C-alpha cells in the first residue's frame, strides 16, 4: 500500500495557512503556492539515490555525491497543478514536464480529460503528479491511470490539501503510489469541495471568480 506522507515542516504549514486565508489575493496566492511547492519538493526528494564521485575543489580532489538513478518528470494536472510546477522546477531544473488537462464536471464530479502531453521517455522516469487539491480523488486517479497506460511505472502524487475520500480513492485505485500532502482535511461538502480547504484552487490562482 502506498504511504501517505503529511509534510509538517513549519514553513510548509505556515504558508498553507496563508494560502487558505480567504483574504489572500491572487498575486500572493500564486507566489505562496509556488513557494510551498518548492518546499514540498525538497521533502519529497529526500529518498533520491546518490552515488559517489570525485570533484576538484580549488584545494584538490573531494569525494562527494551526486544524484543517481532515474531521471525525474513532473506532471501537473491543469489548471491548478500549473501553480506548483515552477516551485518544483526551481529545485529540480532538469525535470521534464508533462501536462494532463482534466476538469471536474460540476454535476457528476467525474473528471473529463481534454489534454495529455507527456515526455516521450516516461517509462524511464520517476514522475511526480501535481495538483493542489485531492477532493474525491477522481482527477488524480484518472491522471495516474493515463500515465500508467502510457508506460509510467514510478509515480508519486503531490497535493497541498487532501480529503479523506481522495486519499482512500487513490490508495484503492493505485496502491503502489506514495501520496504527499501538507494536510488531510475533515471532509467534502455536498458540492465535492474540501472543508475547510481553500476554496476553488484554479479560480483563486487565476482570479477567475
Ligand atoms: C480541481 C483541482 C483538482 C480537482 C480535484 O480542478 O485542481 O484537479 O478539482 O477534485 P477531485 O479530487 O474531486 O477530482 P477543477 O476540476 O476545478 O479544474 P481547474 O483546475 O481547471 O479549475
Ligand atoms: N477543487 C478545488 O479547487 N477545491 C476543492 O475544494 C475541491 C476541488
Automatic annotation (TrEMBL):
Uracil binds at residues 194, 199-201. Binds 1 Mg(2+) ion per subunit. The magnesium is bound as Mg-PRPP. Its cofactor is Mg(2+). 5-phospho-alpha-D-ribose 1-diphosphate binds at residues 79, 104, 131-139, 200. The keyword ATP-binding does not apply. Pathway: Pyrimidine metabolism; UMP biosynthesis via salvage pathway; UMP from uracil: step 1/1. Belongs to the UPRTase family. This is Uracil phosphoribosyltransferase. It comes from Kyrpidia tusciae (strain DSM 2912 / NBRC 15312 / T2).
Amino acid at each position: 500500500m502506498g504511504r501517505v506522507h503529511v509534510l509538517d515542516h513549519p514553513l510548509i504549514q505556515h504558508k498553507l495557512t496563508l494560502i487558505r486565508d480567504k483574504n489572500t489575493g491572487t498575486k500572493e496566492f500564486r507566489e505562496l503556492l509556488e513557494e510551498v511547492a518548492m518546499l514540498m519538493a525538497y521533502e519529497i526528494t529526500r529518498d533520491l539515490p546518490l552515488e559517489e564521485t570525485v570533484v576538484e575543489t580549488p584545494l584538490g580532489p573531494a569525494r562527494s555525491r551526486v544524484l543517481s538513478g532515474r531521471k525525474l518528470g513532473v506532471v501537473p494536472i491543469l489548471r491548478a497543478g500549473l501553480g506548483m510546477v515552477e516551485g518544483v522546477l526551481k529545485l529540480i531544473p532538469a525535470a521534464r514536464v508533462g501536462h494532463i488537462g482534466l476538469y471536474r464536471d460540476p454535476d457528476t464530479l467525474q473528471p473529463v480529460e481534454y489534454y495529455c502531453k507527456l515526455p516521450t521517455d516516461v517509462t524511464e522516469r520517476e514522475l511526480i503528479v501535481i495538483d493542489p487539491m485531492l477532493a474525491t480523488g477522481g482527477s488524480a486517479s484518472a491522471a495516474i491511470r493515463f500515465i500508467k497506460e502510457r508506460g509510467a511505472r514510478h509515480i508519486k502524487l503531490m497535493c497541498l490539501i487532501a480529503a479523506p475520500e481522495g486519499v482512500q480513492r487513490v490508495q484503492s485505485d493505485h496502491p503502489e503510489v506514495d501520496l504527499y500532502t501538507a494536510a488531510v482535511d475533515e471532509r467534502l461538502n455536498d458540492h465535492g469541495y474540501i472543508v475547510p480547504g481553500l476554496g476553488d484552487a484554479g479560480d483563486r490562482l487565476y482570479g477567475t471568480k
